[in-house]
Amino acid sequence: MLPKKVREPGFAKILRLNNLTNHSTVSTILVLPTTEGTHYIPYERIIRLEADSNYTILFTTEAKITCSRTLKRLEEELPSGQFIRIHASHIINVDHLRLRSKTFVRMSNGDEVRVSRSRNLTLSI
């Protein structure tokens, strides 16, 4: 009896194609389950994240995505060198930072995000 060919699930195929199944490879994609389905978002496309109670709004180069994870949980999943928390309700991707002042930053999509006084020192890039 010949073994039956099994189709590879979509997410396993994506992970295999991106060599993310190898534990020595650093992940470059955020896997984000939402009510619409699972999103696979490369870190370089994430502009910023904004807390909204127990939800987080991700602003990417293509879309605005709402997920039911807290900002704190997502902060733990993102690389700390590339993403900085500048406010209790905001995390930014420093690769998309275009202008920095004492009280706000301007991102590549034109959004202005407030910087808290206590986190202003961590933003010394």
Describe the structure.
- This protein is mainly beta and 125 residues long.
- The protein has a single domain, classed as Beta Barrel (OB fold (Dihydrolipoamide Acetyltransferase, E2P)), CATH 2.40.50.1020.
- The protein is built from 2 helices and 10 strands; from the N terminus they run H-E-E-E-E-E-H-E-E-E-E-E.
- A 5-stranded antiparallel beta sheet has the order 5-4-3-7-6, covered by helices on one side. The protein has a 3-stranded antiparallel beta sheet with strand order 8-9-10, with no helix packed on it. A two-stranded antiparallel sheet has the order 1-2.
- A hairpin with a 2-residue loop joins strand 3 and strand 4.
- It is globular and about 40 Å long.
- The termini are far apart.
Number of strands: 10
Count of separate structural domains: 1
Corresponding CATH superfamily: LytTr DNA-binding domain
What is the highest CATH level, the class? Mainly Beta
Task: Supply database-style keywords.
12% helix; OB fold (Dihydrolipoamide Acetyltransferase, E2P); 125 residues; mainly beta
